[in-house]
Design a protein that fits this description.
This protein is an alpha+beta fold. Helices cover 16% and strands 22% of the residues. It starts with 71 loop residues before the first helix and ends in a 16-residue tail after the last strand. Keywords: Cytoplasm, Repeat, RNA-binding.
């Protein structure tokens, strides 16, 4: 991680140091002089009006009454049945019926959002419009950030206790990093860690104390050998988990893709714009988050308004996500439902059980029971089709800790 090029005069990063001298005592943190952040508003992204022409091979008309109301699939169907509102290009705002849609991202309910407090979709992903203005409803402060915060560019010799001490003033927290339990290391091996705060208000307090440079947040942290090193603070704004590009379009789970390996800084609005630029017809994008901390899990969903865009996306199989500093190849698959009847026999040949297989080949794009799969795919040209099955949801790694 690079250090910001130009720094505010009030920033402690401007302090002159001739060298990093080893000294027995730890240097005190000097965060009191951190300056206020600037807040930049930009225009919303464009939206495309795409045709909604269905290809004959995927013209579905039956209802999905069997869907579990606590699943992504039912959430999408709720939206299809809901009254259509003219919502376009909204970040974190409810598409018709999205009270349950947010179960897609591991959240149990939709937090109320005031239009005046919505991010515009282009600003800093983790900052409030005003550092001292918290949204309230019924006298209670509304959570706007995940309690899990990324901190990068840490001093190489800073250990867990020193990280905890540096951030304890914002509230009770636990420090974690990938494979921490297995490695038994006292130092974050790659120079970054995650701060898991007990209260969301601690994250807001941390953001207030940061200095913003070039759209990124920084805070100075000291170690035994390095004084006031600026480290990047990257909070996750909950409203960045969902983006409704075209609220007038019903969301069809059979035109929804799963995107694996999504970089965690990528927001739903950015995922939507990338996919729309590549294939067109995007009406919704969501970033999967874990249910407890509401932090991105590294996967997402994109719903298209037309069959051509959906088929183009799943036919590509891999997509290069390029946005800002992000440049990563990710996998694209059809989103597989786990409670669909066989499209061939409608459950007649399998006792009404849900179909376990989905064929993603564009000549099929159907759900099959075991009998129908064997029957259909014994035909010439289809014997090499491979079935997709519903994958188990990622679960956050269990960690045992006490609040410091």
């Amino acid at each position: 991680m690079g250090v910001p090029g130009s720094v505010n005069q009030i920033s402690p990063m401007k302090k002159p140091f001739s060298s990093n001298v080893i000294a027995p005592p730890k240097f005190p943190r000097s965060a009191g002089s951190l300056g206020p952040k600037s807040w930049i508003e930009e225009n919303m992204y464009r939206t495309d009006n795409n045709s909604n022409t269905l290809l004959p091979l995927q013209d579905r008309s039956r209802m999905y009454d069997s869907l579990n109301m606590h699943s992504l699939e039912s959430s999408l169907i709720d939206i299809m049945r809901a009254e259509q509102d003219p919502l376009k290009g909204r970040v974190g705002c409810p598409h018709p019926g999205t009270d349950s849609l947010l179960m897609l991202n591991g959240r149990s309910s939709l937090f109320p959002i005031d239009d005046g407090l919505l991010d515009d979709g282009h600003g800093n992903q983790g900052v409030l419009g005003s550092p001292h203005c918290y949204p309230h409803q019924n006298g209670e402060r509304i959570e706007r950030f995940s309690r899990k915060v990324f901190v990068g560019g840490l001093p190489p010799d800073i250990d867990e206790d020193e990280i905890t001490s540096s951030f304890r003033r914002f509230g009770h927290l636990f420090v974690d990093w990938p494979h921490k339990a297995e490695s038994k290391s006292y130092f974050p091996p790659k120079g970054y860690a995650f701060l898991l705060f007990q209260e969301e208000s601690s994250v807001q307090a941390l953001i207030e104390a940061c200095l913003e440079e070039d759209g990124k947040l920084y805070l100075c942290v000291s170690s035994p050998t390095i004084k006031d090193k600026p480290v990047q603070i990257r909070p996750w704004n909950l409203s960045d988990s969902d983006f409704v590009m075209d609220g007038s379009q019903p969301l069809d789970p059979r035109k929804t893709i799963f995107v694996g390996g999504v970089p965690r800084p990528l927001r739903a609005v950015e995922l939507a714009m990338i996919m729309d630029r590549l294939y067109g017809g995007v009406c919704y994008a969501g970033i999967d988050t874990d249910p407890e901390l509401k932090y991105p899990k590294g996967a997402g969903r994109v719903a298209f308004s037309n069959q051509q865009s959906y088929i183009a996306a799943i036919s590509a199989r891999f997509v290069q996500l390029q946005h800002g500093d992000i440049d990563k190849r990710v996998e694209v698959k059809p989103y597989v439902l786990d409670d669909q009847l066989c499209d061939e026999c409608q459950g007649a040949r399998c006792g009404g059980k849900f179909a376990p297989f989905f064929c993603a080949n564009v000549t099929c794009l159907q759900y099959y029971c075991e009998f129908c799969w064997a029957n259909i795919h014994s035909r010439a040209g289809r014997e090499f089709h491979k079935p997709l099955v519903k994958e188990g949801a990622d679960r956050p790694r269990q960690i045992h800790f006490r609040w410091n």
